[in-house]
Amino acid sequence: MEHAISLFVRSIFADNMIFAFFLGMCSYLAVSKTVKTSLGLGVAVTFVLLITLPVNYLLQIYVLNPLNLGYLSFILFIAVIAAIVQIVEMVVEKFSPSLYASLGIFLPLIAVNCAIMGGSLFMQQRILLEPENVKAIANIGDAFAYALGSGLGWLVAICCLAGIREKMEYNDVPKPLQGLGITFIVVGLMAMAFMCFSGLNI
Amino acid sequence: MALSQKTKETLLGPLNANNPVVVQVLGICSALAVTVQLKPALVMGIAVTIIVAMSNVIVSLIRNSIPMRIRIIIQLVVVAALVTLVSEILKAFAYDVAMQLSVYLGLIITNCILMGRLEAFAMTNKPWDSFLDGLGNGLGYAWILVAVAFVRELFGAGTLLGFRIIPESWYVANGGFYENCGMMMMPAMALILVGCIIWAHRSINKEEK
Measured between alpha carbons, how far is residue B92 from residues B23, B51, B202 in Å? Predict the structure, then answer.
């Protein structure tokens, strides 16, 4: 249990998907114009991570490892992710049209969000670590904790950036640097700030 | 080479005016993560170029028989199969680079350049045009990667491709004046460098906008 909590906190701050590994950068930069849509995308990413990562964990442990099919993991993982995203989209559309209206446009995008695939691939590496290692994922509970932490870390990162970008509307940025250029530099500075968390030990 | 105007544009456009990384903002994730050294950046650039070109051709060949509703899954499977091939080949012949690239090799699957090009170009164009488009976009991606990696490795470690460029005798430890810029090795610096490339690119190509 302690291990799962430490994994959870570490994956939000020290191993943040955006600032430490640059995962999910494309939609991160494209959608972070307002806090509201960012929050929607962040919730959607967390939700999909929370479903796909444990499913892929079970597949890796009970299907790929015993059958020695490790090299098929890319195809299997991405198929699982794409299928789950499609199912989630249909379920949400059926049962909660209002949620669908706010998340709808983001859901298909999430299938190709690197953070989702990256989460599964990191999980695959972390299974191999020693159980004492703080980064190890030893059971299904850890997989859930890691998925939730990574998703929330992503959510925090995109909401922070969206907040800064909303403020920055009023600033006098050099013309060629406006828009994308300054956003990159802001993310760079935020990444530096988040580096302070790398010493975090729980 | 007798290339028509349109073919030339398909191939060369992505290198500069329509660059996938700095203009279309696709494939940023891996562009930032693998650029600490020049060698993994080169390998990554080549791998992505091959995969974009090949997957463009394959999807373009089967484009008329793909049902619209499940096209994303089909495209992903094509790409995933190619990425698996490339990663197995790299593990066999360049193990150390494959280890350095680690998960980012697998993440080529979700590289937005691939999905972007497949959706925007290969689904509606002939195989040969799609091949050129893939080649152009892959190379456009590769040169940004190499440019960022060049700066980061040169100033961060004083080497290029593992060869020493800045002489040992310049370093403070050996009685010189120079010290490596540790910031360059940090993830944050990659973001700032790409930001600067975009800045330069936009101020040069201003008249087109």
Answer: 35, 18, 41
Residue with tokens 């699982």: A80
ipTM beyond cut 0.85: no
- B81: chain A residues, CB-CB within 8 Å: 75
The predicted-structure confidence for A123-139, as pLDDT tens digits, reads as follows 888 888 877 777 788 88
Q: Using an 8 Å CB-CB cutoff, list chain B residues near A26.
A: 25-29, 112
On whether the CB atoms of residues B83 and B106 are closer than 8 A, the answer is yes
Tell me which chain A residue has its CA closest to the CA of residue B85. Answer: A71
Task: Name the closest residue on chain A to residue B116, using Cα atoms.
Answer: A112
Verdict on whether the full-model pTM lies above 0.90: no
Distance CA A165, CA A173 (A): 12
